[in-house]
Amino acid sequence: MMQLDQLAAAGSTLAQEDLSMFGRDPWWLVLIKAVFCFAFLMLTVLFSIVWERKVVAWMQLRIGPNRHGPWGMLQSLADGIKLMLKEDLVVKRADKVVYLLAPVVAAIPAFMAIAVIPFGPAGNEISIFGVRTPMQLTDLPIGILYILATASVGIYGIVLAGWSSGSTYPLLGGLRSCAQMISYEIAMGMSFAAVFLYSGSMSTSTIVESQQNRWYILLLPVSFIIYIVAMVGETNRAPFDMPESEGDLVGGFNTEYSSIKFAMFMLAEYINMVTVSAVAITLFLGGWRAPWPISTFWEGANHGWWPLLWFTLKVQLLLFFFIWLRGTLPRVRYDQFMKLGWKVLIPVSLVWLMLVATVRALKNEGYDFSQIVLYVAGGAVLLLLISLLVDFFRRAEVAEETDGDGAFDPMAGGFPVPPLPGQSLPPVPRRRPRRERELIVSGGADTVSDGIGNDGKGGDGA
Question: Is 428 left (phi over 0), alpha (psi -120 to 50) or beta?
């Protein structure tokens, strides 16, 4: 623990040295950077909407947008204009103040997280109107915690939108979204903790600088996978889009919204996609650094304005991953989604974080790398053996409790499921024979048990 404290202290000192570059820009340069961040998000969103519709159409053998602009590239702009010109309805029984503020509360925090994302090196690498400045709006010693805080505030906009509408299904959609966002933020935060242990800092610029020799996706692959799953659940995207499940919620928390208010919810969703992609790039994919083949033979790849290009390409690749999931995987059931978060991602995150902390502590104690691998592998094998034994005895208990006839129970898991090959459904209770159903359809006896016919007399109604 003392070595971990020393590591954290060293990381704090390093972050403080790097953060000395920030806070020196004149006010007009800060304004230019803020406008650039806003424009970057808006242009990326406009392109992502068109790209999503075209990629999904290509996957489903359809044409996709092709009317507005060259190759349909202005389709998202046309959609925005259409939404602004549509009638702006306000539900009669809604809480007017909260109903109008909810889209704003959902959209504004989505823009705020980009403020601490580095687009380039922390040093004075570029010149804007003769002033040398880093390619980042600002940075904080706890920059990643700032991102988590802004993402958490956006949840209020969604849950308040469902509550203030005064309708049942938007309320259920808002509660679903709030529950899944809170659940998946826990696993997301623990995947960040492994990065903090390796970089020794929570500053985004320092985390990127610490990936100079090796990206954290290679050192922390489990943390990266956990974050990828959590970020899809955090943004309410397919296959985890249960808050907007049209089949059982009619549309989710935004059902009672129209015009520009509905557009703000959609804007917040796509901006959150860009934000979580930027965070994944910053923490695991080297940030603004050029990919490996380019950085080896080109020394200037990570200087000047080139880092902005590599950062943008990485964002587009992760956005393509979002689109790929939507066009490939079906929507899961809500209980399956919550079980994945609480019973899989969070336990795996805890175990992985313990392993990472153990490796860091052993390295600080001076142990050889081969010994560290032996200790960690032995602990992992022991955990696997224990889990296999527990699963074996649990299956044995379930087999003993099962009836001897092996009848298939479609409600055994709490939800009706179809039978597997080789299984058959039990007979439906109180199911009349076919002859009696034909009698009912033709006006015959309604039931046999009481022997009363349609004319009120006994027997066959004669």
Answer: beta
